[in-house]
Amino acid sequence: MRLNIDDVSVVYPASDGRPPVAALSKIMLEIGDSEFVVALGASGCGKSTLLNLIAGFLAPTSGRLTLDDAPVRGPGADRAVVFQKHALLPWFDVLDNVAFGLQVQGVALAARYETANRFIELLGLDGFQKSPVYKLSGGMQQRVGIARALTCDPKILLMDEPLGALDALTREKAQELILSIWNESNKSVFFITHSVEEALFMGTKLIVMSPRPGRITHAFDLPFSRQFLAGSPARGVKASPEFINLREQVLKIIFADEEAVAT
Ligand SMILES: Nc1ncnc2c1ncn2[C@@H]1O[C@H](COP(=O)(O)OP(=O)(O)OP(=O)(O)O)[C@@H](O)[C@H]1O
């Protein structure tokens, strides 16, 4: 899988008396097989706009996006989105929520339940198949959302602040779970977060974006998720001098951008 974002800009047109918004400018980004790319940046720098472009919810004003050399022209089963608010169907139970993407694709009932059950088990939700989703905790609902995204076997998972609504402990556990699923499934991931620590821990590559208009100003290759997956404890990785140095470097970049926006 190779996603190519080539010189892409987005301008939202003027509306309701407000001027046009230059949301992204000249974005160049490649996401390859098994890469975990994390986007970080001050609020309004265009992270969600970039995710919406990849998902095909939005077309670029200029530039090109291709997935395995084919232009991205709209949403498709090769890209699955996990949102912060789980976007689950409250009147369905866990099994039907997880199987929903396959139902939309017209997969027969027995086959879609078989696939859904595999991912329910992978996400640690076995036994909850018949539970209505509104009865589950936030962390469990998020796992249902991830299981649903995985059932369609996408080439790339697009995650927009998926863990933002979770408490600190659940969030750390969910980070570790996502990393082990990513490691096993070999999917590519594009992941948005506001947490510098989460970004550094999860990604194989970090892009830092600046607002007005949104640009990629810095990119870092990251070793930390591999260290965790090779057996180092997550807290130990996050407390290592290498991690802390990079965290401070990235925080400086983001604070400078936020101050520039505020002035
Ligand atoms: N539909 C729209 N019409 C006009 N402007 C928009 C629209 N969607 C987003 N914007 C503007 O484009 C810019 C980028 O928005 P976007 O949501 O992509 O940023 P973000 O980095 O994801 O922000 P946050 O971190 O706050 O979620 C912002 O200034 C936002 O107000």
TrEMBL record:
* Matching SUPFAM superfamilies: P-loop containing nucleoside triphosphate hydrolases
Q: Which residues form a coiled coil?
A: none
Q: InterPro entries from the xrefs?
A: AAA+_ATPase (IPR003593), ABC_transporter-like_ATP-bd (IPR003439), ABC_transporter-like_CS (IPR017871), ABC_transporter_ATP-bind (IPR050166), P-loop_NTPase (IPR027417)
Q: Where is the ABC transporter domain?
A: 3-236
One of its Pfam families is: ABC_tran
Residues spanning the membrane: none
Molecular function (GO) terms listed?
ATP binding; ATP hydrolysis activity
Q: Which Gene3D superfamilies match?
A: P-loop containing nucleotide triphosphate hydrolases
Task: Please give the family membership noted in the entry.
Answer: Belongs to the ABC transporter superfamily.
What name does UniProt use for this protein?
Answer: Nitrate ABC transporter ATP-binding protein
- Recorded source organism is Mesorhizobium hungaricum
